[in-house]
Amino acid sequence: MAADRMVGSRQLAAMLPDLAGARPAYRHLAQAISALILDGRVALHVRLPAERELAAALDVSRATVTAVYDLLRESGFARSRQGSGTWTALPEGRAPSGVSRLLGSRDSVIDLARAAPALPGAVLADALARVGPELVEQAGSPGYHPYGLPELRAAVAERFTLRGLATVPEQILVTSGAQHALTLVLGLLCRAGDRVVVESPSYPNALEAMRRARLRAVSVPVGDGGWDVEIVESTLGQVVPQLAYLIPDFHNPTGCLMPEGERGRVLRAAQRCGAWLVVDETLAELALDGAVPSPFACHAPSGGSGQVITIGSMSKTHWGGLRIGWLRAPSQLVTELAGQRVATDMGGSVLDQLVALVLLGRAGELLPSRLEQLREQRAALVAALGEHVPQWSWRVPAGGLSLWVDLGEPVASALAERALDYGVRIEGGAYFAADPGVFEQRLRIPYTVSADVLGEAVRRLAAAVADGVSPSSASRRPHWVV
Question: What is the mean pLDDT of the chain?
Fold first, then answer.
């Protein structure tokens, strides 16, 4: 069997929790492996280690591993092939965690797991009315635009130019969201085993895309004070990665903004080691205190912006339901990425792109009210936290969509589980970690819902805390390793 269709015994053992005090051990191991499969940390349709090998790696009896595999088969998380071992599977009716996290919560649950704003219905209705005649005209064409609708490419290019980075439409590829843009870049520029530099914490779906591409991630920390640029520079120089992925503008989840002087240093360090720099600017226009930062690539040394790829999206500024994103890159790379795209997606929805074109044209009118609403909601969240959980601490970000809250003890995963019983869906800090076992004292709390709802959510979280959350509960959750 091909090596890339199996998971090694040592690799799996490193991802499993400590069994000290866990009884019965086989049930805890089966639950942990099931969670790894749902999270995508162990892929579907791969062969699990032989029973004897896993028993040796875990220092348990072979009978224990036999019971684990039996339970996985009974629950639908594994199946056996005669003569070829035990393979991972997904039970009928179960969805991977990456899918279930994006699904809406039941009506009684306040959803703080997704930091994404809604779009006022009247704004969407107006945009749809405006694009009707244009859509009728487009209907006379085949409708395939692998580079994106020409008018939308031009509009995105103009926005970069107005922000200080001269851009032509040929440097723009319209994608189905920023995640699509990143996946295309990873697929074209990287091969399994390549090193990539990432921040920790970082955007979880970006980290997951890199794991699924079987890249070797090397993390640099982002603390409450932002980036230690000397660490970033030295990591780039020592690791010599294929690419580095950064979120310098109101970083998700910390909210930090990289100072302009530090951006040039990072760009020069990437240029010295020949790494591609992928800059995620999906949050750049959500400046709540101060001006919108200029594009990161503006700070490149003369002639040094050729290996900078900038990713953007309308999901955070307007609405994720449009699935409109883009990337800015050298025109030749854009052509190569379009070729990569047509293998799975021959072009985005013309209707969505026309709506996006209308909304971008009205950004000067629509965005200020969106920013003012976010300021009010941010203030409401800060006030509610101060009233109900004053033992927690946080730094108010100058932009973005969330607070990165310090709980003071490593209980975030356990609190997230308990909070669901109190009607709040939220993610613990470990979900954003690029390295295992960290950020258990952190909670990302978005301020993308109304002030009243935020106040109620914080009251429910405070009630969950008052009910008691044990740090040991969090430590039993499985962690993944790079």
Answer: 89
Residue 393 neighbours by CB distance under 10 Å: 12
**Would strands 243-246 and 276-280 be described as parallel, antiparallel, or unpaired?**
parallel
Which pTM was predicted? 0.80
Q: In which element (H, E) is residue 245 found? A: strand 243-246
Q: Is 169 helix (H, G, I), strand (E, B) or coil?
A: helix
pLDDT at 472 exceeding the cut of 50: no
Residues ≥6 apart with Cβ < 8 Å to 307: 270, 271, 274, 275, 276, 277
Cβ pair 242, 276 in contact under 8 A: yes
- Report the alpha-carbon distance of residue 78 to residue 88 in Å, rounded: 4
d(CA 357, CA 366): 13
Strand segments, DSSP code E, in 84-151 are: 85-88, 110-111
Query: How far does CA 386 lie from the centroid of its chain?
Result: 28
Q: What is the DSSP letter of 115?
A: -
Phi, psi of 470 (to 5 degrees): -95, 130
What pLDDT is stored for residue 481 in this prediction? 28
Q: Residues 128, 136: contact at Cβ < 8 Å?
A: no
φ/ψ bin of 471: left (φ > 0), alpha (ψ from -120 to 50), beta (otherwise): alpha
The dihedral over CA atoms of 203, 207, 208, 210, expressed in degrees to the nearest 10, equals: 140
How would DSSP label each residue in 1-28? --GGGB--HHHHHHHSPP-TT-SSHHHH
Using CA of residue 459, residue 440, residue 21, residue 62, what is the dihedral sign? positive
Render pLDDT for 365-422 as a digit per residue (tens, 0 to 9): 999 999 999 999 999 999 999 999 999 999 999 999 999 999 999 999 899 989 999 9
254 and 404 in contact (C-beta within 8 Å)?
yes
